[in-house]
Design brief:
The complex is a heterodimer of chains A (505) and B (965). Chain A is mainly alpha-helical and 505 residues long. Chain A has 3 domains: 221 residues, Serine Threonine Protein Phosphatase 5, Tetratricopeptide repeat (Alpha Horseshoe); 116 residues, Tetratricopeptide repeat domain (Serine Threonine Protein Phosphatase 5, Tetratricopeptide repeat); 101 residues, no CATH class. Chain A has 18 helices and 7 strands. In chain B, 6% of the residues lie in helices and 49% in strands. Chain B has a domain of 75 residues: Immunoglobulin-like (Sandwich), CATH 2.60.40.1120. The chains are: A mainly alpha (505), B mainly beta (965). The interface between A and B is large, with 112 and 105 residues.
């Protein structure tokens, strides 16, 4: 009987949601928020995904944990579940931090699939979306495809061959097939190339929305690492796309630190694609809340970071500190009350915390959250400096379409900003691949690139380069090569018998 | 003509007190009366013929022939069988002798005495197969009730509770400590507990976890006016506190630099006080519970009206509960008793002040060398850990007393349950009855939480004012026809019922912003909630008895739920039961040894659709984000619109249950009891699972997957050791053995999958210690096997490499025991000597395991390794010497089997104390007297199996008085 046909009052049915064109942008906002937030209530509550701690599984935080805690750039003192296994490099397929990332990636992909499915030309026309709205909807759809491609790139980089779902698959319970690394590479590449004409021009979109430059950035990184991903060199393409970014009118921010402060949304000249936060309106326990609070502890003053207290968690190893010249503005670390040597990972005062991310503005004022919990600081997912270094590295690795002199000039632009003058500039002979790896750490430390970089340079697993507590011993030791990929989490292997585990796990 | 005269007499119960309101009828006539407050009656009779029938609920009826005498003093004896003669089952009643299913009845006489704030406490430990575990010592906090262990994994495992024919909403009521705390136990007359599927299937979709039918007290026709006043005044005391380091032990640990590699750097943080923080937060708590009821019959209108007032303090400072309740029952009959009306309205209002139970953990953690107060008034005068800038150190524990005294968390809830039941016996066909029952259960809860800016935890946000509100409306309409016919020709009796039931639940929760103390908005209001679900059922039942020996009951119910999509909305739930009253067979009928012997078999399928917070799990739907989870594009912040995960095909969970039982009574009922064995299998479990990545719009959702099996054995035995006029001594035992196992868990069966991790612990965020996996009991512990040194001390961080792969990782976790007891037992005894009465209740659980999260979280020297504040430790650290938390060691799982003396009561019945008009009875009672266990924590009874910052169950001493006018 009709009495049993009830519909929600504080939610919309899917059909109703797409009747009003204003809602399309709200759905798009959710796709972006999939990286920034963890649910429909900030900082936590009404979570998107479950099975683990909401804040820790935030996309940016989960990505950062896998990309940084596994490397020389970061250790964390909290004895939470299996987190120590990341730095000790002995994780298994049931490690929850790996699963958090994996589930976030596929949640994001599923969200994007849903929106793409609901914004096909046929559906738009069926709902009478025409004119300016139609143009707008197409941009939204292209951005959804960009976000999906970015997540698939994360999946390729972290997990290799993964289950493959697109907008062609309906929502339900089915068992997706696993896509090979080569096919996934092709798919990501094809998607990004296909949407390139539909995306808004570089630097032309609303703040925090993706434009062509964001797509070029993912392409650049995809090509730069193609040898790792599919065993083919694509350095020429890496040069091509990093050059497109560089030539799109971006410029370096005058102050390095300004890129990581509460008002870094103003640094639009350099930040290509941010994940946005706000102390009152965009709140999470992951993202920059984590990145600002976690490295504060010991005798450090939280007020200087614009927050109400530290979490006494993150530090870096002496190997990273050793890369810095004291005149380098990028040497943002605290040594007071801390010891360089890490005797115990669980003791915050062992190792120096990096003080890169802060919730204060360039003129020293704290962010907007009166409670001092959540920063206004946006997470710079991609920025121009990375494009410079990609260009330089791709040229050094034999990519054509660029030249070493230009590469040197880009690197020296970074050095000049860092040192305040040209005292830190290098010469052509200094510009080696080893220099690039070290410079990437100096410039891009704690921005979520390190694991990928070390793998590309063959120094992630092998004992050719070790750092404090690599492999679970204080002096560091190499681990087996299979650890260059993370395992498919047990949770999905048991849900989907089509999946084959990565070798070694 | 025979002479008209008046006879009189006194009726007493069990040779002691006069019984008030006993019905005295001259058999076969309309001449009747009831005894007065002195137990006296008088009745006009004609001549010396006829028979007087004395009947009173709970007592064996007696028939006395009228002779020449004009005085008839009668002593009625209590009789359990007489009491249980009629058992209330779904949509009707049944004679106990005719029952084919597993049904237990507990009536007022058997209720646990003493201070009972919620109804569940009345029957704790009394019924085999029913496990009632109180949720802690907070006032009105209620219990977790499991009948035969529950049938679900993730869907609701609570039994259906039906109060006077209204299936009530058992979900939390905002502002009240628990939904049952709004029901005054003093108004309850009996509990009937339906356990097996053949008994519960008439409730179809809501029957898988058993049904508890609560009947409240009523007035009786012809009953004299009766006023009863009941008062219980009690003192609750903390029984024991968690062992932590004393101030001196703590000083030694810090000064020696344990946990900081001997670098005694943190000794500078020590204070000079000796504070026992647990003594600071607990108090002796007083409770008064007063109930006044009046009942009787005004002309032909039987009535009962009662008011109750409870004022209970909690042993955790600042917690309290005040409850005012009223109940009215009218049950008149009209049309020559053809139309029976039963009208009930119950209303209650609670005012609670909730204490921040985080103070319990804070009191364990707070540095004992620090004082309670400091001179700095910025934080209300309470000592707090501050950072260099003089602001609260956000990582440090907060002053436990400040958490309690500065927080004003007040909730208020009103609930009313009422129904009107019309039962009409057709004039032309008296065997046919029509029964209409309309009812409601509405509640409104609201509350405010205020924390001033002087409270360290909200100092940074400028203090906090928040409020909440919730309205629940639950409407019910039932109608059934019942036809009962005796066919003497074939020595058969039929009883056929067919009916319809409609129930609708509506919950509204408005949203409010969180303000600062000054009143500015700190967090925008969220999205208001409004959810609704409807259940519709058609049901039928046939009872058939042949020669009063061979009994058959068949039920069927077809239920529809709004929670599922078209095509899956309806489920059918049948049951069949057979019973053989062996004692009615000729070879036993005249046996003096065997009075009652009945064998029962039952089979049935029941359903489950209650996935509490999922109202539209089948529907593709989108919801907006709140003001704290917006996303910016340009300068504009957008509320995000999120598609929810859903399962178009979601449907009922189904439990198939088999039951075999034996009821017996030997030696004229002096030994009686029941034995039941059962097996339940639940398939299509409404379980929360993780579907293949990328296939749904969330990573985990509820769908039908997997199956669960439980098996059990229950026995209840009542033994009347002595039964003399001045001395009676009864014993009751009940025991349950149960075993629950998960048979399958995912859409695909993967033998390599360990299962679903559950059981998060306090301390390591996201760390779990339990697992649901195939072939094991739900919530089994899943941990590393601790390695010990030759002295038996655990080696920190050293675990056994169970898979021998040379490394210790998640593959070395193993399943070790489970929180659910293998066996639970109840024991009660009642000794009466003249006017004295001594009763006691004991309970035991065997084979239940508990993870001591206080040890694992607080028993490590890392608590004193922080450079800016100190945290006290559980004394367990002196045993382990652990430096870092080792949450995942099986060292922390302990056998928590226990024997608890729940209740001991001494009563004295003064009889008449004032002009033969007032009867007085006094009781002295102690609850939670002692617990015998090897478990090292505070209390071994932890239903989740993870012991952490539990509000301790107090020991209660109560004095009660009962006055009858």
């Amino acid at each position: 009987t009709d009495d049993l046909d009830l519909t929600p009052k504080n939610e919309l049915t899917s059909a109703d949601a797409y009747k009003d064109f204003a809602n399309y942008k709200s759905v798009l906002a959710k796709l972006y928020a999939g990286f920034a937030l963890t649910g429909q209530t900030g900082p936590s509550g009404n979570a998107d995904v479950g099975g683990f701690d909401e804040g820790k599984s935030n996309y940016i935080r989960a990505y950062w944990q896998l990309q940084e805690l596994t490397t020389d750039e970061a250790v964390i003192s909290w004895n939470d579940g299996t987190i120590f296994d990341l730095h000790e490099m002995d994780w298994s397929s049931s490690n929850e931090y790996i699963r958090m990332m994996y589930d976030r990636i596929f949640y994001e992909i599923a969200l994007c699939n849903e929106f793409i499915r609901e914004t096909t030309d046929a559906k738009l026309s069926e709902r009478g979306v025409t004119g300016a709205n139609l143009e707008e909807a197409k941009k939204f759809r292209a951005e959804a495809r960009f976000l999906r491609a970015m997540s698939y790139w994360h999946a390729l980089d972290l997990f290799g061959s993964v289950p493959f779902v697109t907008e062609e698959d309906a929502v339900g319970f089915f068992l997706p097939e696993q896509i090979s690394k080569a096919d996934l590479f092709k798919y990501i590449e094809a998607e990004l190339l296909a949407i390139e004409p539909e995306l808004v021009g570089a630097r032309q979109n609303e703040y925090a929305r993706a434009d062509k430059a964001a797509a070029w950035m993912v392409l650049s990184k995809l090509y730069l690492n193609a040898e790792v991903y599919i065993g083919q060199q694509k350095y020429t393409e890496a040069v091509t796309y990093s050059k497109k970014i560089i030539d799109a009118g971006f410029s370096l921010a005058p102050e390095y630190q300004s890129l990581f402060l509460a008002d870094n949304h103003k640094v639009r000249s350099e930040i290509i694609f941010p994940v946005a936060y706000d102390g009152q309106r965009t709140k999470t326990w992951g993202g920059t809340t984590f990145l600002v609070h976690a490295p504060i502890g010991g005798t450090m003053s939280a007020a200087a970071f614009g927050v109400n207290g530290g979490w006494a968690g993150l530090r870096t190893t002496k190997e990273i500190i050793g890369l810095f010249n004291s005149a380098d503005d990028r040497a943002l670390y605290n040594s007071a009350g801390q010891k360089l040597e890490i005797d115990q990972i669980g003791v915050f005062t062992d190792g120096y915390p990096l003080t890169k991310y802060k919730n204060v503005t360039t003129d020293g004022k704290p962010g907007s959250d009166p409670a001092g919990d959540h920063p206004d600081t946006d997470y710079p997912m991609f920025r121009l400096a990375d494009a410079y270094l990609i260009y330089a590295e791709a040229v050094l690795r034999g990519g054509s379409g660029g030249d070493r002199a230009t590469a040197l000039s880009y690197v020296n632009q970074l050095r000049t900003r860092a040192f305040g003058d040209n005292s830190g500039n290098i010469t052509a002979s200094d510009l080696t691949l080893d220099f690039i790896l070290a410079e990437r750490a100096r410039e891009l430390h704690w921005e979520g690139h390190r694991r990928t970089d070390l793998i590309r340079f063959g120094r992630f697993a092998s004992d050719s380069y070790v750092w404090a507590w690599k492999g679970g011993v204080k002096t560091g030791r190499g681990v087996a090569d299979f650890r260059r990929l993370f395992p498919i989490p047990t949770s999905d292997l048991s849900a989907n018998p089509n999946l084959v585990q990565n070798p070694g796990y | 003509a025979a002479q008209q005269r008046t006879i009189s007499g006194t009726v007493t119960g069990d040779g002691t007190a006069p019984l008030i309101g006993v019905s005295v009828v001259l058999k076969g006539t309309t001449t009747a009366t009831a005894t007065d407050v002195n137990g006296k009656f008088s009745l006009p009779v004609t001549g010396n013929t006829g028979t007087l029938v004395f009947s009173y609920i709970g007592y064996v009826s007696q028939e006395i022939p009228v002779g020449a005498s004009s005085t008839y003093n009668v002593n009625l004896l209590t009789d359990a069988r007489a009491l249980d003669e009629v058992v209330i089952v779904g949509y009707g009643t049944q004679r106990k002798t005719d029952l084919t299913g597993s049904v237990a009845a507990v009536s007022e006489r058997d209720f646990n005495p003493g201070q009972n704030t919620t109804p569940d406490q009345l029957i704790q430990g009394k019924v085999a197969g029913v496990q009632i575990t109180s949720n802690g010592g907070a006032p009105g906090s209620g219990s977790t009730i499991r009948i035969r262990g529950g049938a679900s994994l993730n869907a609701n495992n609570d039994p259906l509770i039906v109060i006077d024919g209204v299936p009530v909403d058992n979900q939390a009521v905002s502002g009240a400590p628990n939904p049952l705390s709004l029901i005054n136990p003093n108004d309850i007359e009996s509990f009937n507990i339906l356990k097996d599927a053949s008994a519960t299937a008439i409730y179809g979709s809501r029957a898988s976890n058993g049904v508890i039918i609560i009947t409240t007290k009523k007035g009786a026709s012809g009953e004299a006016f009766r006023l009863s006043f009941n008062t219980v005044n009690s003192l609750s005391k903390v029984k024991n506190t968690v062992d932590v380091l004393s101030a001196d032990e703590f000083r030694a640990a810090v000064t020696e630099g344990r946990g900081t590699n001997g670098a005694a750097g943190n000794a500078n943080l020590l204070g000079s006080s000796n504070t026992n923080w647990q003594d600071q937060i607990f108090q002796d708590a007083f409770t008064t519970d007063n109930n006044l009821s009046a009942s009787g019959s005004y002309k032909k209108l039987p009535y009962r009206v009662s008011v109750g007032y409870l004022d209970q303090e909690g042993i955790l400072k600042t917690s309290s509960l005040k409850r005012t309740s009223v109940a009215l029952n009218l049950n008149p009959s009209f049309l020559d008793d053809h139309l029976k009306v039963n009208f009930n309205v119950k209303g209650s209002m609670t005012k609670s002040r909730y204490a921040d139970e985080g103070a319990i953990g804070a009191a364990i953690a707070f540095d004992p060398t620090q004082p309670v107060y400091m001179d700095n008034q910025q934080f209300g005068g309470y000592y707090e850990w501050l950072d260099a800038s003089g602001k609260p150190n956000t990582l440090a524990p907060r002053n436990p007393l400040s958490l309690l005294e500065q927080r004003k968390d007040n909730g208020e809830a009103k609930r009313s349950i009422g129904n009107l039941q019309l039962d009409y016996k057709f004039h032309f066909l008296p065997e046919l009855r029509a029964n209409l029952n309309v009812g409601y259960d509405i509640s409104k809860g609201q509350g405010t939480v205020f924390r001033p800016i002087t409270m360290a935890s909200v100092f940074n946000q400028g203090g906090s004012r928040s409020e909440y509100e919730q309205t629940k409306t639950n409407k019910l309409a039932d109608f059934y026809l019942n036809y009962a016919k005796e066919l003497t020709a074939i020595d058969s009796r039929f009883d056929v019922t067919a009916g319809y039931s409609y129930q609708n639940f509506l919950i509204k929760t408005p949203a409010f912003p969180v303000l600062t103390e000054a009143g500015t908005v700190f967090a925008q209001a969220g999205i208001p909630g409004q959810n609704e679900n409807t259940l519709i059922g058609f049901f039928g039942r046939i009872n058939y008895a042949l020669k009063d020996k061979y009994l058959l009951t068949a039920n069927i119910r077809r239920d529809g739920s709004s929670r599922f999509a078209e095509g899956n909305k309806w489920g059918t739930f049948p049951s069949l039961a057979l019973a053989w009253r062996i004692s009615e067979e000729s070879f036993l009928k005249n046996s003096s040894l065997v009075n009652d012997l009945k064998l029962r078999f039952g089979y049935g399928i029941t359903g489950q659709q209650d996935i509490s917070n999922d109202y539209y799990p089948f529907l593709a739907r989108y919801s907006f984000s709140e003001g704290t989870a917006l996303y910016p594009f340009g300068d504009q912040y957008y509320s995000t619109l999120r598609p929810a995960g859903y399962d178009v095909n979601i449907k009922w969970e189904e439990t198939t249950q088999y039951n075999a039982g034996l009821d017996f009574g030997f030696f004229e009922g002096r030994i009686s009891g029941t034995i039941d064995v059962y097996k339940k299998k639940t398939k299509d479990l409404l379980a929360y699972i993780f579907p293949a990545a990328g296939t749904n719009l969330t990573n985990g959702l509820t769908t039908n997957v997997g199956s669960l099996e439980s098996k059990g054995f229950e026995a209840a035995l009542n033994f009347s050791a002595i039964s003399k006029e001045n001395l009676t001594w009864d014993f009751g035992f009940n025991g349950t053995i149960q075993d629950v196992k998960i048979l399958s868990l995912s859409k695909v069966n993967d033998p390599n999958s360990p299962g679903t991790l559950v059981g998060g612990v306090s301390g390591g965020t996201g760390t779990t210690v339990q697992i649901n996996s195939i072939g094991y009991t739900p919530y089994s512990f899943y941990l590393y096997k601790q390695v010990y040194d030759e002295n038996g001390s655990p080696l920190e961080g050293v675990y056994e490499d169970l898979n021998h792969d040379g490394q210790i990782n998640e593959k070395d976790l193993y399943r070790y025991k489970a929180p659910q007891p293998k066996v639970y037992l109840g024991f009660n005894s009642n000794l009466t000597y003249k006017q004295w009465n001594l009763a006691l209740v004991m309970r035991a659980n065997l084979g239940n395991y508990v993870y001591n999260n206080i040890y694992s979280n607080m028993g490590t020297y890392s608590n004193i390794s922080n450079a800016t504040y100190l945290v006290n430790m559980s004394s367990n650290v002196l045993q382990t010497n652990f430096v870092n938390p080792r949450y995942v060691s099986d060292y922390y799982v302990e056998n928590a089997s226990f024997l608890r003396m729940d209740n001991i009561t001494l009563g004295y019945n003064f009889g008449k104390v004032y002009r033969d008009k007032v009867n007085l009875r006094l009781t002295a009672n102690a609850q939670n007297v002692f617990v015998i266990t090897n478990y090292s924590g505070l209390d071994p009874e932890v239903s989740s199996g993870i012991d952490n910052n539990f509000y301790p169950r107090p020991r209660v001493f109560a004095l009660g008085a009962n006055l009858e006018f």
